[in-house]
Amino acid sequence: MFADVVFVNGQVITVDSNNLIAEAVAVKRNRIEAVGTNEKIKRWIGESTKVIDLRGRTLLPGFIDSHLHLLGYGLTRLAINCKDASIQSNADIICELKRKAESIPGGGWIIAVGYNEMFMLEGRYLTRHELDEVSTVHPILIVRQCGHIMIANSKVLELAGVNDQSGDSEGGVFGRDKSGRLNGLLVEAAMDPVKRVMNPTEEVLARAAEIASRDFVSLGITTIHDAGGYEPVNLRILQHAVHSGRLKVRVYAMVVHEPNFIRMRETCLSTGFGDDRFRIGPAKIFIDGASTAPTLATRQPYETNPEDSGILYYTQENMNDALIAAHRDGYQITAHAQGDRAIEMLLNTFEEALRQYPRDNHRHRIEHAGLAMPDLIERMAKLGIVTVPNPNFFTEFGDIYIKHLGARSDYFYPIGACLKAGIVVAGASDSPVSNCNPLIGIHGAVNRLTPSGAVIGEEQKISVMEAIRLYTWNGAYASFEDDQKGSIELGKLADLIVLNDRILDVTIDGIDQLRVEMTMIDGEIVYELGKSPDANDALEETINFIM
């Protein structure tokens, strides 16, 4: 009964109920067989046991990112990245678009992602007319960093059936110039017609999943809660990618948008169906907009515009109709809710759902739960809600929150107050909106520093151990899998990562400088620093959408 792999001489952060720090771990097949001192684990070492000397470094449970967009991330790795250091202006983006247009046949889509007009030298959005100067035979689309705004050229609008006479929809706005003509800006639900004509092939999507997986395991991510944003058929693509080995990470897949989870419910499948590699997650809707645009729905207007309180996709009645039925049929339910107005509406729905159909251990969630004021935190705690904030956002967007929300920004992602109230908080990146490195998220939760060096909500800071728990055990709890993973304990799945240093001993301002040296999933070492294939090898092609 010898182990297959033994880790010794480490700072083993178990994240168990006592936050035990051990020295060594034994792994047999895909399970943890023993945890303890070096001396205790010695007896598990046989002739064929692979012994890994940690040399004092940290061993952690695999990181769990509880909200990201897997295929969206993979597709962005095949697109022009506006976050590249070489892009500082709209003019730089135009140059990249022209270069791409010269290299692909007419009709091929050209996509740019990670765009933020506030970070461009011009300080404004690009327009449809500027994109038309690049090409009118290629569909050209720029996706804002938040994912809630796009800029399209005339070819994209033509394919989407949108023209100057098109009216705004519920929860969406078409940008217009002074003459009333479309300027290419598509806000929130106005993006829907474009999304419907963007149809990447299954092979492109599978390739995107593979690229994403390579990046994720290099960052120590062993499980992702996929926040979707696409048709149910793509759940099948993800499932196939997992079971074929192209996608190494475990997937807890949200079913997004009411029509999709109605169809899923008709098959009698709901949250929890699947296995430990791929499992159906919650039913999810979008209630409001983005935190950085900003289009999040707030109870009081933005500091920068007394006439603006954001965008809502749902009325209270419609949201109740959508989510209560899913709750009744056994789903965990959740919603994208960034502003306090949206969070309040979602809590109303949770309360009504549980009044009509009481259920213990529902673990209903709030994705983001951005502007969570004290009265809302109290209601969340009473209801047993899991919140899924994005502490990595502070390091990139924190100053935007201060600008638009003023003093209220102290309660943006109020992780400290939520933990004190007894709320389980699961950490997430919302990638590709922001960097998916969990160590940046841990750093953000501990330090809450903006790019300018300001602190958002000093009292909301948490300890390093609490932040580690956000990305491990709490993430497993959010998917009903805390009995299988999220901590290093006897019998749990062998999803483990090795850092290059001791995370509990480095200064807190250096957490984001740590890196992952090894990742193990299901007892298999799937990444070793310097030995794994470079994901960039797969990036020579451009997205080629088939209409």
UniProtKB/TrEMBL annotation:
This is Amidohydrolase. It comes from Peribacillus simplex. SUPFAM superfamilies: Composite domain of metallo-dependent hydrolases, Metallo-dependent hydrolases. InterPro entries: Amidohydro_3 (IPR013108), Metal-dep_hydrolase_composite (IPR011059), Metal_Hydrolase (IPR032466), YtcJ-like (IPR033932). The lineage of its organism: Bacteria, Bacillati, Bacillota, Bacilli, Bacillales. Pfam families: Amidohydro_3. Residues 50-527 form the Amidohydrolase domain. CDD domains: YtcJ_like (cd01300). It comes from the Bacteria. PANTHER family: IMIDAZOLONEPROPIONASE (PTHR22642), PROTEIN LONG AFTER FAR-RED 3 (PTHR22642:SF2). One of its GO terms (molecular function) is hydrolase activity, acting on carbon-nitrogen (but not peptide) bonds.
